[in-house]
Protein 1
Amino acid sequence: MTARVEHTDVGAYALGLLEDDDRRAFEEHLAHCRPCVTELSELSGVAQALTGLGPLEDEPPRGEEPAEVIDLLRRKQAADRRSRRGTFLVGVAAAVTLVAGGLVAGAQFGGGSPAAPVASPHDGIGPAERFYAAGTPVEGVGSGGVTGGLVLESKGWGTHAALKLAGVKGPLECALVAVSRDGDRRIMMGWAVPPAGYGVPGSPGPLYVHGASALPLDRIDHFEVVTTEGATLLTVKV
């Protein structure tokens, strides 16, 4: 994909399969492409499903990836560059079904927002909120009344993070970015904030969402919640 960007590379980016030049080019594209931001938010959960979350019995040892699935997706990516973008998504969904036994994974917007789906029929709490509540949050420093934090998990494939965000009003398009110690920036998750916002009067429920990065946790300096307009809403120092 060097020197050009294609929508079908969202899946490869979510799984950390792009080479450095391709990744940087795609991240520049992502800052101005709302459909890709929305798609990345869905595939962040898919990346976690492919690497041992949910009902899988064994997690790959640290430093190893599910080779057969990764090879399948690499070959699928190459084929889909010659076909429609939708075909790639079907292939990724099929891979998730094979590996995760039908596990449904992705972003979870919770905390009582009128538009928030309920991800669990048992307790009304989605996976991101449940993961956040069970962990030890690292509080962030916000701007303009924004508050929030992250619960972090080191994985063999990189870093899993659950974000809680409050005090933000929309409409906004945001992303959670992991910033490495050498300045490398990786978008972990993207979402849209509706006009009512999260954790504000009239919409008191905070936003819970989770994302993933191929960057190992010990290489990350901090995380940022940024808008597509360039504003930093929250900074979480590791």
Note: The CA atoms of residues 133 and 147 lie 16 Å apart.
Protein 2
Amino acid sequence: MFVRSRIPPVCHEQNKTPRDKLKSLFKSGVEAALMTGELPSRNHGWKSVFDKFIDLMGPDGSWFPSHAKVAEKAGVSERTAWAAINALESIGLIRVEARYLYDAEKGKTVRTSNLYEVVVTKAQRAVAILARAARKAKEAAKRQWAAASRSSMVEWGRRVIHHLPATAAEDPQLNIFKRENQAEPSRNWSHNEWIEYCQTGNQTT
């Protein structure tokens, strides 16, 4: 079961508005935004996204296509599809509401997709712009908190490693190459005695 956001949707009567009327309002809003410069007209990939994006609205007005689906229909990359949809939201032509689903394996609620709504009136458009700003600020705060948590964990790991005691192999005062079963050679040995000692050592190891 999806867990909807507690923020009420912009269009409470969205499902009662005919699909054709919503599509017409959306297309006229996009055309006006292109003429006024609110949306960049030079980006032809975005125009394809706008056309295919609204065509993915369901017969009952439900509208929650993935970025991958929009990109596939428009023949563009997912990044282009995301940028175009984000531009629509930034000027208040659509309202975006996150949808969540409980993941039993992870034991928590995860974000699965977005629910989109066509903004009908100017008042709703202003509300949609404010809602977007609040959502973006909340998402930015979550990213900063996650980054700070990762940084703290890395710093904690460095401190733990720094304070670990040195191992026997790292102890410069310990002769780890000492042969336990042989006596220490004398420094006054002859050349032949040194050769015999080395050969004996190689055989024992």
Note: The beta strands are 2-4, 94-103, 108-118.
Protein 3
Amino acid sequence: MSKVTVDQFAKLMVDDKVGKILKATKVEEGLTPKQISKATKIPNNQLYYTLNKMMDADLLKIVKQEKIKNLTENYYSSLFLNQKTKYIVHDDDNVLNFSDDWIKEHAEQTLQLVMLQHHEFISALRETINNGNDEDNTTSAHGEIDLSPEGEKKVMSDLFKVLNNAEKNDPNPDSKNKRHVKIQLEKW
């Protein structure tokens, strides 16, 4: 569980160094601080404080340690943050809702996860804008609709079903040109 508050986590998410470190450490075997410094062009003397803050916020994991003389070399990875997830739907086609008690008990982690996902989206959108890459179609769609509680429940269930079956319904499942696509649904 994260040792930082939501406000402290939000400050990390706007730190340019954090974004660079998250991107560089998306590797299973992890990177040493020296390797992270080289990949991000962040000087070593500015790196350790940020690495410690990211560890406290559960943004990095130490995936390996090596003893070198009297020192322990840590290998950091953020790959675990990018594991593929499925959208959850009950068998009766109702969207899984968490109880108010569960949300209250896990409020900090829930808010931090949303902030992390927004950070990833903003980084991807910025990269698309800066590179002018037509193949990377990072998009954002927004809308407002008037629905009954039953209609709201049904539209969310329908969207989750589409997302859960997207790979199975891929019109070209054998394509060698596949991309890892992230989709985030938010309702308020």
Note: DSSP finds seven helices and two strands in the chain.
